[in-house]
């Protein structure tokens, strides 16, 4: 079934389509996510999983106190997570506020990271409460400064009020700005969507409007990337691919801090969307502290002992 034959972007067509989606079995989703979270990973697979998780990290700093020096240090770490071990993969992207994109791009270019993506949060992140001209300018500024990925937030107020056409239109406008210039990740802020049914509906609206990725959250609202929420989103991209032939990525962000957390995410991906999604092109983890724990666990597997926490830089 081709989505463009049933969705024209109008409120009526969106509501008609969303009405056809099956409801989410809340108990079933929670039980399956909990069951998958108990899966053990053997050492050989764990070593591969750690490197895969590192390559999927969107290394992030989104604080009002961010400075150019902090962003440069983050970029250096993202490109060479362990300067003593060249076999450690680089991260998936560096994620910053759009006023820091130019700093990040200039520094990465200077140290050989020309092709390391920079993701910028835009459209009045994290609230999404601004006029459309402001959201457009926000996005254009980020791309002009060198962002190759745009993490936009949806208008949750419009979504919860049932104004699906407004949410769709805003995503489509930002997508049109991004075409051939940047990948678009659409942040649903699942902690504010209340129900799993809403998470599924918002996922489909974003995908229908042209998202390259759907992302759980800003990291500023709790709960964020819970296992059942990520499961529902992975089911949505899997089913959307079956329906349209288009693969959409998922970014889990917020609350993923340990290697154990990250591996649970990889198990969810493999068992829900399938191994095709086990690539940085289709799955990312938005995090800051996570990279340090992944590096510590990697050192433990390599050397048989834990290094001092001071061995890795503090973000």
TrEMBL record:
UniProt keywords, alphabetically = Lyase, Schiff base
What does the record give as its pathway? Carbohydrate degradation; 2-deoxy-D-ribose 1-phosphate degradation; D-glyceraldehyde 3-phosphate and acetaldehyde from 2-deoxy-alpha-D-ribose 1-phosphate: step 2/2
* The keyword Lyase belongs to this UniProt entry's keyword annotation: yes
Fetch the SMART domains from UniProt.
Answer: DeoC
Give the EC number(s) under which this enzyme is classified.
4.1.2.4
Keyword Lyase in annotation: yes
Matching InterPro entries, A to Z?
Aldolase_TIM, DeoC, DeoC/FbaB/LacD_aldolase
Provide the top EC class.
lyase
A GO MF label: deoxyribose-phosphate aldolase activity
Check the record and name the Pfam families matching this protein: DeoC
Q: Catalytic activity annotated for this protein? A: 2-deoxy-D-ribose 5-phosphate = D-glyceraldehyde 3-phosphate + acetaldehyde
Tell me which Gene Ontology terms the entry assigns under biological process.
carbohydrate catabolic process; deoxyribonucleotide catabolic process
Cellular component, GO annotation: cytoplasm
> Which segment of the chain is annotated as a signal peptide?
none
Q: Which Gene3D superfamilies match?
A: Aldolase class I (3.20.20.70)
Its transmembrane ranges are none
Which family would the database say this protein is a member of? Belongs to the DeoC/FbaB aldolase family. DeoC type 2 subfamily.
Question: What protein name does the entry list?
Answer: deoxyribose-phosphate aldolase
Organism from which the protein derives: freshwater metagenome
| Lineage of the organism | unclassified sequences, metagenomes, ecological metagenomes
